[in-house]
Amino acid sequence: MDNNDLVMELAAGVGGQEAMLFTADIFDMYQQYAAYKSWSFEILEYFPSEIGGLRHAVASIAGPEAYKNLKFEGGVHRVQRVPKTERQGRIHTSTMTVAILPQPTEIDLSIDPKDLRIETKRASGAGGQHVNKTESAVRIVHIPTGVVAECQEQRSQLKNKEKAMKVLHAKLYNIQVEEVTRKRCSTRKIQIGTRGRSEKIRTYNYPQDRVTDHRISRSVHHIEKFLLGEELLDEMIKSLREYADYESLMEIISANEQTKLT
């Protein structure tokens, strides 16, 4: 799957408006990282908050080795800082989650049209007359699994349907991938790459100007530079890939030793 494109889903977690502001920061970081890597970045869903934060967003990222580089970014990202909304200068802890879904090829996954329920509705949010008069938003339900995908970013119902199908394919394919990963995982594997939404993977500590990835116990300074989505983020991702390769090698060696013993 390393050569696959991907769908990235971001959602605000614990922390109210501050969590939404942090989610917007992380969304911008990945959009800038895609530009840094010369990948395409297409927004499929984007639901902002009232003060400039982000409640939930979905984006499609395509380019050479996109999934290979971003597959370890899934999980809980935590921020520790004084929120813009805090008047007494207290440090708050907030979270947001990232899910990385590999985009399947036509060979990887086929969906029977009979298994789909497609609904249309008027788009919500800003948009003037267009929002009020056209049912351009599309919601697709995969009946056997209950998996839902929506899109309302485009004025065209047809384009929204195409984008919603892209998200649905990724979600269904991800279910298959997670099942395979679960069966393959050994007890010594550190869970890098399982894209667990409940796993805290990284902390952005503003008072200490430090970003720490808890899976590899690596910290870097200059948070603002890290959030630019350029060299510092790229170096962290390379470290994660190297550590994951090491863990995979150890797993193979361990499996071979067990085979010899039996």
From TrEMBL:
Q: What is the lineage of its organism?
A: Eukaryota, Metazoa, Chordata, Craniata, Vertebrata
Q: Which residues form the Prokaryotic-type class I peptide chain release factors domain?
A: 122-138
Compartments where located: Mitochondrion
Q: Which UniProt keywords apply?
A: Coiled coil, Methylation, Mitochondrion, Protein biosynthesis, Transit peptide
Q: Which InterPro entries match?
A: PCRF, Pep_chain_release_fac_I, Pep_chain_release_fac_I_sf, Prokaryotic/Mito_RF
- The name of this protein is Peptide chain release factor 1-like, mitochondrial
Please tell me one Gene Ontology term that the record gives under cellular component. mitochondrion
Q: List this protein's GO terms for biological process.
A: mitochondrial translational termination
Main location group:
mitochondrion
Give the PROSITE patterns listed for this entry: RF_PROK_I
The UniProt function text for this chain reads:
Mitochondrial peptide chain release factor that directs the termination of translation in response to the peptide chain termination codons UAA and UAG.
Where does the source fall among the domains of life? Eukaryota
Picking any one GO molecular function of the record gives:
translation release factor activity, codon specific
Which family is annotated?
Answer: Belongs to the prokaryotic/mitochondrial release factor family.
One Pfam entry for this protein is RF-1
